[in-house]
Design brief:
By secondary structure, this protein is an alpha+beta fold. The protein has a single domain, classed as Glutaredoxin, CATH 3.40.30.10. It is built from five helices and six strands. The strands form two sheets. It has a four-stranded mixed beta sheet, sandwiched between helices. Strands 1-2 form a two-stranded antiparallel ribbon. β5 and β6 form a beta hairpin. The radius of gyration is 18 Å and the shape is globular. About 5% of the residues have low confidence.
C-alpha cells in the first residue's frame, strides 16, 4: 500500500503499539501485581507480557501430601504452554507445610520435581494478610484456599476465575476441559 519503507515501518510500529495496549487493557487490574521469583531478587508481573491466554495460579507447599501434583502441573504446563497456558506456583506456609527457607523450597520445586513454570517467593494466601492476588482470587471465585494445591484458573479477558480444590489433580478432565475451552 505504502511504497515508502519508512512510512510502512512507522505504521507497523504504531499498529503494534496499539495492539499491545489493547491486550494490556484486557488484563484485569487485580492481576496486575509484581511478585518476586522464588529465590531471586527478580520480579515478574502477571500482566506482562500482555496476554489474553489463561493463567493457572496454584498455592503450593513443599512438604504437603499433594506435592506430587508438582509433576502434574509441570506436565500440564508442558502440554499447553505453546498454546498460551501460563502456570504460576505460589509457595505458602499458611498450612505449615512449606520449607523454612527459600533455598529448600527451590530445591524441592526445581530439583526434586523438575518444575520449569514460574514460582514466586513464599506468600500468605489466606486471611487479611494474604497477598492481594489471593484476596482477589478468593473474591472472584468465592473460595479462599482451604489447603495447599488449590488451583485458580483465570480468564484474563473476562476476569472470570474458576476454583479447583486440592483434590482436583492437574490432569483432571474437568480442569483440562476448562483450560482447552479458554485456549
Amino acid at each position: 500500500m505504502y511504497a515508502n519503507p519508512v512510512i510502512r515501518t512507522v505504521i507497523m510500529l504504531v499498529a503494534g503499539l496499539l495492539v499491545s495496549m489493547v491486550v494490556k487493557a484486557e488484563c484485569p487490574a487485580w492481576l496486575d501485581h509484581y511478585l518476586y521469583q522464588l529465590r531471586s531478587t527478580m520480579t515478574f508481573n502477571l500482566c506482562e507480557p500482555p496476554s489474553d491466554m489463561p493463567l493457572l495460579v496454584v498455592n503450593t507447599a513443599s512438604f504437603c501430601g499433594y506435592a506430587g501434583q508438582f509433576r502434574g502441573l509441570e506436565a500440564l504446563y508442558q502440554s499447553y504452554r505453546q498454546q498460551g497456558l501460563r502456570v504460576v506456583g505460589v509457595p505458602s506456609n499458611d498450612f505449615r507445610q512449606e520449607a523454612s527457607t527459600e533455598e529448600k523450597t527451590a530445591e524441592v520445586c526445581f530439583v526434586d520435581y523438575g518444575v520449569t513454570f514460574p514460582m514466586t517467593s513464599p506468600q500468605r494466601v489466606r486471611g487479611n494478610q494474604a497477598h492481594p492476588l489471593f484476596r482477589a482470587l478468593a473474591e472472584h471465585s468465592g473460595h479462599e484456599p482451604q489447603w495447599n494445591f488449590n488451583k485458580y484458573l483465570v480468564d484474563p479477558v473476562s476476569g472470570q476465575v474458576w476454583y479447583y480444590p486440592s483434590q482436583v489433580r492437574p490432569d483432571d478432565e474437568v480442569l483440562i476441559n476448562r483450560i482447552e475451552s479458554l485456549l
